[in-house]
Amino acid sequence: MEQALKDFFANDAFMPHGHCFLWLKQILWLHVFSDGLVALAYFSIPLMLLWFIRKRADLPFKGLFVLFSAFILLCGITHLFSIWVLWNPDYGMEGIIKLATGIVSGITALVVWKLLPQALALPSPIQLHKMAEASRINEERLNLALSGASDGLRDWNIITGETYYSPRFREMLGYSEKEFPGHIDSFNNITHPEDRERIAAELKKHFAEHAPYNIEYRLQHKNGHYIWFNSRGQAAFDASGKPVRMTGFITDISQPKAIEQMKSEFISTVSHELRTPLTSIRGALGLITGGAMGNLPEKVTELVGIAYKNSTRLVHIIDDILDIEKIESGRMETHPKTVPLAELLKQSVEANHSYGEKYRVSFMLHDVPQDMKVTVDPDRLMQAMANLLSNAAKFSFEGGTVEINAKRKDGRIHISVRDYGQGIPEAFHSHIFEKFAQADGSTTRRSEGTGLGLSITKKLVEAMGGSIGFETETGKGTTFFFDLAEPPVSIMEPTPQTNPSGHSLRILVCEDDRDIGMLLRTMLEPAGFIVDNAYTLAEARRCLLERSYAAMTLDMALPDGSGADLLKSMHKLTTNPPPVLIVSGSEMAKDIGSQVAGVMVKSHMSETKIVDTILSLIHQAANSKKQEIL
Amino acid sequence: MAQTLKRILCVDDEEDILQVAKLALETVGGFETRQCNSGAEALIEVGQYNPDMILLDVMMPQMDGPATLKMLKGDATFANIPVIFMTAKVQPSEIEQYLKLGAIGVVAKPFDPMELPKQIEKLWKQLHAA
């Protein structure tokens, strides 16, 4: 084999045929012409292919095209060299060129073989045509559906900002394609300024949690007025979970919004109009039942009592209807604050004490940790608790107990109200939170409620970011429970205000109005003060005897006397009287005696103002003491 | 300004409510009262009656409660007479608005006639406490 190869390449064993071309000139030129023509053609093909690759950026198998171009180019050079060697015996170079052509053609063949399955998977022109036709039909169907549904389509490329708006989208807003270019900025520019923050928050939630994107917002029509739209959408995410595209629809909801507004105004007007005659009816009956008109015959008193009781019930129904309407229309005012839960629950129990007495039921509030706080509108939480407590009292047996509890569970605060009554009939479980729902017949007495209390409570709890539920057992009672988020530690634990020796500064708030007392507490605690509430003069005296205070606020009109009495006896109660800030109901109270350090009008109170004033009083008191020592 | 609350001017376009308020304030509270059916009437009556306090309805035709209060506050003679609004519109923002206008308090409708004198007395005491 080795000898055969040696013989094959040996000059004497292998004689090339030479370039005689039978010594015919015509044959020689035929070869020159045909090789030249082939070379020319071969050179043009790579040029055409390279131009094609450049023009078609999305061309598949680009590498193969390059390889093929190189192969064809080398073939062309081979043919050109065949002409060259007719007159110049550069057989070595010719061999090298042929070798290069062979290598490149071999690689090309291998690559083609490898890519063949992928190439076969590509749609054929017929398939492409069918797909295009199906796509056209789908688009037509979508456009028809959109035009029938009067919805606008938006397809937003989140990376580039480029956005497709369907013709209907622009039509609803009165813009032409030129006036409303295909970019997300066009949309952003016409959103109502008040809605922007809400839209951004909803998008953020959708991108982060994949929560359904369903929002109502206003867009500005070309004519300047705003239109309400409902928008639904879905984002597409890349492999890393980053949103890359979002497609969605907008529906004009201005008409239902207007109807909703009319309904809301109607309910509000009717409710307020009903209150006017009710004020007279309930007022007149109240004067009679209250004994202001003297004694009446027993039967008349009984009948007037029934009329008075039911007029009061009617007032509650109207109040509840108004509350439901306010919550459903989003007009319920809420003022969330971070407040200690124990104090709120204590107030709830006290406020509903008389209700419990009416049914001879006692409320028992279990110990609630003092550091347990919630961020809620205190009035709304009190309202929700009032509904649950009154409900529990109504459905308890006489002499029974209603237990109120608050515990931490799974990072949230769970508040429960438990009664030991008859329990809720199973058939009623699914309707319990519906409006005007009342289970009767199986209870020992008919309830006197409006049938809206639990529905309102559910909505209030949900508005506070919680959820409500119940557990019930026939003959054993019912527990209603709801959960609320516990505010972050940063909100709950402010930097404590301390004196130079490092002791925390304690403030006494003496105020008989529990709401204002609570408000002052919630203003002062976040600033780092420890706050004690006193609701009567007696409580304030006890606090001053027991503890030392850096400052105190004082309401002058207290149930068991005037704040002025406390001021007079202050030196008898403590050797270190705190500076006193009078928190008064009116401007006129500013003209106050010299024994107090400052006066603040309740209606002008603000968190910053009260904290600054208290700090300034403490500072002044400290300075005056230094001067006394000096 | 008087230190003892005695004379109260009640203003409401509803005759029946005026009657209930009168009975409550006079019979239960022991005050003297006079009644007006409109804001305009109240502006005339206030000069003649010289009340210690005005109980003023918010929603009245033509001149409503807030407009009446503004007129009173604009006249130095009556600017210091404390005014309490009577209204069914008692959302926190609405109450804040009434207080900003210069009212010293709000009585929610429907009011309890047996409690009305106490409510008014409490606001009066708060005003004079200092």
Summarize this entry quickly.
The complex is a heterodimer of chains A (630) and B (130). Helix content of chain A is 51%, strand content 18%.
What would your notes on this structure say?
- Chain A has 630 residues and is of the alpha/beta class.
- Chain A folds into 5 domains: 2-121, no CATH class; 150-252, PAS domain (Beta-Lactamase, 2-Layer Sandwich); 257-328; 337-489, Histidine kinase-like ATPase, C-terminal domain (Heat Shock Protein 90), CATH 3.30.565; 494-629, Response regulator (Rossmann fold, 3-Layer(aba) Sandwich).
- In chain A, 51% of the residues lie in helices and 18% in strands.
- Chain A is built from 19 helices and 19 strands.
- Chain A has helices spanning 2-9, 25-55, 62-87, 91-121, 125-149, 167-173, 184-190, 193-209, 254-289, 298-328, 341-351, 353-358, 378-394, 453-463, 489-492, 514-524, 537-546, 563-573, 607-629; strands at 151-157, 163-165, 213-220, 226-237, 243-252, 337-340, 362-365, 373-376, 401-409, 412-419, 468-473, 477-485, 506-510, 530-534, 551-554, 557-558, 561-562, 580-584, 598-601.
- In chain A, a hairpin with a 5-residue loop joins β4 and β5.
- In chain A, α9 (254-289) runs antiparallel to α10 (298-328).
- The longest helix of chain A has 36 residues, at 254-289.
- In chain A, 25% of the residues are buried.
- Mean pLDDT of chain A is 83; it is low at 13-17, 441-446 and 626-630.
- By secondary structure, chain B is of the alpha/beta class.
- Chain B has a single domain (7-124), classed as Rossmann fold (3-Layer(aba) Sandwich), CATH 3.40.50.
- Chain B has helices at 15-28, 39-49, 65-74, 92-101, 116-128; strands at 7-11, 32-36, 53-57, 83-87, 105-108.
- The model of chain B has no long low-confidence stretch (mean pLDDT 91).
- At the A-B interface, α9 of A face α1, α4 and α5 of B.
